[in-house]
Design a protein that fits this description.
The protein contains ten helices and 21 strands. It is α+β, with helices and mostly antiparallel strands. The strands form four sheets. A seven-stranded mixed β-sheet has the order 1-2-3-4-5-16-6, with helices on both faces. A seven-stranded mixed β-sheet has the order 8-9-10-13-14-7-15, sandwiched between helices. Bound molecules: coenzyme A (COA).
Length: 421
Amino acid sequence: MRIGTVVGMTDTGGIDFQRVTTPEQYTGFQECASIGFQHRLENAEAWTEAILADLENLDHRVAVDGGRTVGTFLSFDQELTAVGGARVPVRAVSAVTVLPTHRRRGILGRHMRECLATAVENGAAAATLIAAEHAIYGRYGFGQSTEVVDYRITVDRARLPRPPVDEVRYVSGEEYLEAANLMREVLTFPGRVSRLDVNGRKAAGVLGPDTGDKQRLVLRRGGEVAGVLSYTVAGKWSDARPDSTVTVTELLGVDAAAERDLWAFAMSIDWVTSVVAAQRALDDVVTTVPADPRTVQVSNRMDYLWIRPFDVPALFSARRYAAPGRLVLDVTDPGFDDAGPGPAHGRFAITTDGGAGECVRTDEPADLAVGLADLGRLWLYDEPVSRRVALGDIRELADGAAARADLMLFSPRRPWTVEMF
Ligand SMILES: CC(C)(COP(=O)(O)OP(=O)(O)OC[C@H]1O[C@@H](n2cnc3c(N)ncnc32)[C@H](O)[C@@H]1OP(=O)(O)O)[C@@H](O)C(=O)NCCC(=O)NCCS
């Protein structure tokens, strides 16, 4: 397998590639990343302290030119939830930047190839990332695998389900964090990834001083945590009447009813005329909450999680199936830089019975031919296989294979990634 070969397509000569092990290197990492992302880190001192304490797990890489950090790259172990709730070990990629002075010289490519080769060696089933732009990561075998949308609700308070005022309470950051972490233990919808501890603490306002104005609530049912809601409010008056907007920053429920109730709560707050929420699931229950569904507007539909599969048997053996059957996939994995077939290349037989499935390499004739870019999406069942076949993206090699794949792979929930990383 030549996946591990580091072949620079472009000249990165003179640039020193290092793993971050010192506070000075991390300062360089942050300076470069804040130029690349055009955004300065909030609460930088507490964040830096948390990162430096965990450099063993958070593999920060830098490209240094003449003493100046010109490129950054972070990777770490993550768990990705399969259809049915099992979690598979993957390698997450994040904080990818290259200074505008050093772009298109192969710095990202060098970081990425090294990271992916190591992840394969270490047994990751796939690599994951959230792409800033659609065009960047396909060349490394990543394919768009989940999507998100933004919602804006024009509140009609007279026609809402009753909010769960007896079951929901405003809580401290610490209590919120505990409940939010607990929620992440019980949620089973596909496409979710585990959250870095530092991101959880930041979101709960307990990483250093809480300078934000977020409100945090926990929903309890029979004493057990059943949901969490956090939001900010932009207070406003228009024509002598209240006209505030609530921005939901997190809303998670153990089931659809809990989610509906938390939405109803957010919409029920006095003075609020609009509720907005970004990067939510495509099948979010919010569209069912107001009596008039036209009061919910959907916008900014976009790709979210990108998956680069490595270990096809591990991925397809981990998920659950909606129907018994057998399916042989022919997967084309060109590897990197045309260096030869990658780790996901080959033919794989999936046999399912009673919800469980087993996936092994095979020489049998294939039912469906799938490119690497479509594999993550197919695994998470983000859309029907028959539609991809109709579009020519997936090829049906045996009659009826697409219909059979749809029955077997079906997931009652659209995948949703929840976390930004
Ligand atoms: C995206 C970014 C990291 C690319 O770094 P880079 O070192 O210039 O990338 P490389 O030189 O290794 O590029 C490898 C290939 O990807 C292509 N590529 C890189 N960035 C691209 C982009 N934004 N759009 C389209 N293609 C891109 C390059 O053209 C090159 O292709 P080629 O080999 O066919 O010429 C850099 O431009 C950057 O920091 N952008 C701002 C922050 C950002 O978007 N980060 C990504 C966060 S997910």
